From TrEMBL:
Similarity comment: family membership: Belongs to the bacterial solute-binding protein 1 family.
Domain of life: Bacteria
Taxonomic lineage of the native organism: Bacteria, Pseudomonadati, Pseudomonadota, Gammaproteobacteria, Vibrionales
Function noted in UniProt: Part of a binding-protein-dependent transport system for a sugar.
Chief location: periplasm
Subcellular location: Periplasm
Source organism of this protein record: Enterovibrio gelatinilyticus
Gene3D superfamilies: Periplasmic binding protein-like II
Record keywords, A-Z: Signal, Transport
Annotated signal peptide: 1-20
Name assigned to this protein: Probable sugar-binding periplasmic protein
The UniProt record lists the keyword Protein biosynthesis: no
Length: 427
């Protein structure tokens, strides 16, 4: 898909003026060269994590101009990026990840950063599964920050204790706990009704019900029978069954406001990637004591991965190029990797970082990652742009959201639409 057709596929529900009004562009006043960075890290934990990088750049004499576009796990930021690029005004740096890196690289927008990769010996530092995403035609064009696990459940310990419910390991146990929590007057499952949050939940349920092999065969190999089969049906029905355990104020609520419900003890659980941990930590909550992290029900052996990365747009100004290279270098700095990932909730992307000072959840994530890699249970995240391209993702989110939000939407028709959505990238 080329950039023009990508632009044409932009959701019309996001008018350009709304995007412009929603961005947060700020510039620190230093004397050095300016580098404009477009990203979507604006929640409490995210902002704390990226602040470290801004500070390090400033210390090195570079002036970070922040172009933050909040919302929809990056979908708004990517829309803005496309518009700016098409009007000939791309930022110097942008947050892009997964297969989309290839799409932008193939269009010739991105700078080759092989020199930084060589200088820091990336081939020895990064797992192969990670580095494959970062290259176009064998050349590095993106730098990775982290590895997020998507299939997590976050629980408020006090609510569980008060209600006398057991932390759920399986989907059946989830529904038993949810009933108890609901009867006690708490919200069992915190969910914001944004399509990507619903899709994130769908992904964890699909992993549990389909298992790793069928999940991959369906979403990565586009197996028609699996895309419309009985396990997909059960996944959708389980998703819809969970709705009765969510609250009436879910529509439109951001993921971080949704996490706050668990932090404040109004809700018992959220099924969300480990950027949610960043919110608990930013609210001074302690892993294991105030909140518990456990694999999303039925997915203990699996690890759905989501890698954040920055790319660098081709620029002529030598000062800008120097700032881009400096930024690329700092992201893989060991000290930054420790600081950033402790705040962000993810695990370091470098294989050589000592995990000793990381909390229990991060240690568990690292163990889970290594175990999943050894047993072939690592899967690229469906809902966070690692497994499918943007066209399929937009279509699939739409299909899942329609089904979840409207009980009259027919399941057979939805299954056909799931298949069509997953194939949309190939059109
Ligand atoms: C994900 C991203 C995470 C986190 C999350 C919510 O797609 O990879 O870093 O920011 O969105 O904004």
């Amino acid at each position: 898909m080329n950039i023009v057709s990508i632009l044409l596929s932009l959701s019309l529900s996001v008018p350009v003026f709304a995007i412009a009004a929603d961005t947060q562009s700020t510039s620190e006043n230093t004397n050095g060269s300016e580098i404009e960075v477009l990203h979507w890290w604006t929640s409490g934990g995210e902002a704390l994590a990226v602040k470290e990088l801004k500070d390090m750049m400033k210390e090195q004499g570079h002036n970070w101009k922040d172009f933050a576009v909040p919302g929809r796990a990056g979908a708004s930021a990517i829309n803005t990026l496309r518009i700016r690029t098409l009007s000939g005004n791309p930022p110097d740096v942008a947050q892009i990840k997964g297969p989309e890196i290839q799409e932008w690289g193939a269009q010739g927008f991105l700078t080759n950063i092989d020199d930084v990769a060589e200088q820091q010996s990336w081939s020895e530092l990064l797992p192969r599964r990670v580095s494959d995403y970062l290259k176009v035609d064998g050349h590095y064009v993106a730098v990775p920050f982290n590895i997020h696990r998507v299939n997590w459940l976050w629980a408020n310990r006090k609510v569980f204790e008060e209600v006398g419910a057991a932390l759920p390991q399986t989907l059946d146990e989830f529904f038993v706990a949810a009933e108890k929590i609901k009867a006690a007057g708490y919200i069992p499952l915190a969910l914001g009704n944004e399509a990507w949050q619903e899709a994130t939940l769908f992904e964890s349920i699909a992993l549990a019900i389909m298992g790793t092999d069928d999940f991959r065969r369906a979403f990565s190999e586009h197996n028609s029978e699996l895309l419309t089969g009985s396990k997909m049906r059960e996944t959708l029905l389980t998703l819809r069954r969970m709705k009765q355990y969510t609250d009436a104020n879910s529509p439109g609520r951001s993921w971080s406001d949704t996490t706050s419900l668990v932090i404040e003890g109004k809700a018992a659980m959220q099924i969300m990637g480990d950027w949610a941990k960043g919110e608990f930590l930013a609210a001074d909550k302690i892993a294991g004591k105030d909140f518990v992290c456990l694999p999303a029900p039925g997915t203990a052996n699996q690890f759905s991965f989501n890698i954040d990365s920055f790319v660098f747009f081709n620029k002529d100004n030598p000062q800008t190029i120097a700032s881009q290279k400096e930024l690329a270098t700092l992201i893989l700095d060991p000290e930054f990797q420790r600081e950033f990932n402790q705040n962000k909730g993810s695990i370091p992307v470098r294989v050589d970082i000592d995990m000793q000072n990381f909390d229990d959840c991060a240690q568990d994530a690292m163990q889970a990652f290594l175990r999943a890699a050894a047993t072939d249970n690592l899967v690229a995240s469906l809902s966070h742009n690692m497994a499918i391209g943007r066209a399929s993702q937009i279509a699939l989110f739409d299909v899942i959201s329609r089904f979840y939000n409207n009980d009259n939407v027919d399941i057979d028709e939805t299954l056909r639409h799931v298949r069509a959505a997953v194939l949309a990238d190939k059109l």
